[in-house]
Amino acid sequence: DSGVTQTPKHLITATGQRVTLRCSPRSGDLSVYWYQQSLDQGLQFLIQYYNGEERAKGNILERFSAQQFPDLHSELNLSSLELGDSALYFCASSPGRANTGELFFGEGSRLTVL
Amino acid sequence: LAKTTQPISMDSYEGQEVNITCSHNNIATNDYITWYQQFPSQGPRFIIQGYKTKVTNEVASLFIPADRKSSTLSLPRVSLSDTAVYYCLVGFRGDDYKLSFGAGTTVTVRA
Known about the structure:
Chain A is mainly β. Chain A contains no helices and eleven strands.
């Protein structure tokens, strides 16, 4: 158990819909990272937040947005969903602002868009 | 970010040592080498990280030659539960380290 909690574990929705994925980082960790893993794209970095502020951005679509709240939990919002958004979405956390390379990943949220 | 190349898959048997080599010819001076393990439908798990020479922990060893253009992850005496995808990542442990994962190496351990 990494200490990172993600909900929901599974989500099935339709194209055009909007979903929110939630992540609670390990106790004491200030950075939260979001990753997307699909069969054809592998594990892709989406975005990082540190103590409530956006820290780094990767291949995140404009239809996707994220935020980190004062209690340090984070939410990833996916809107206007397309079939290609079906994937495993992972959240990871680490203690500091800089990414030392050692991240703690949650179990992921599996999104299926029909 | 330094590009990494590692074998797509490797087969082994229980009790054997598994060595996975990762090539990273354009590694930068400040880059560190990090390895992760991922089981199906689970998040990646940090295994080991190094800069040069050899690093060992309770799970694995990481060998890095002097030119740092490659690295080898060594898993001693593997068991069936070591069947997983192993990722080699190279990057600077700082502000811009976005930790990008490649395709990884699928290691299959057989009885």
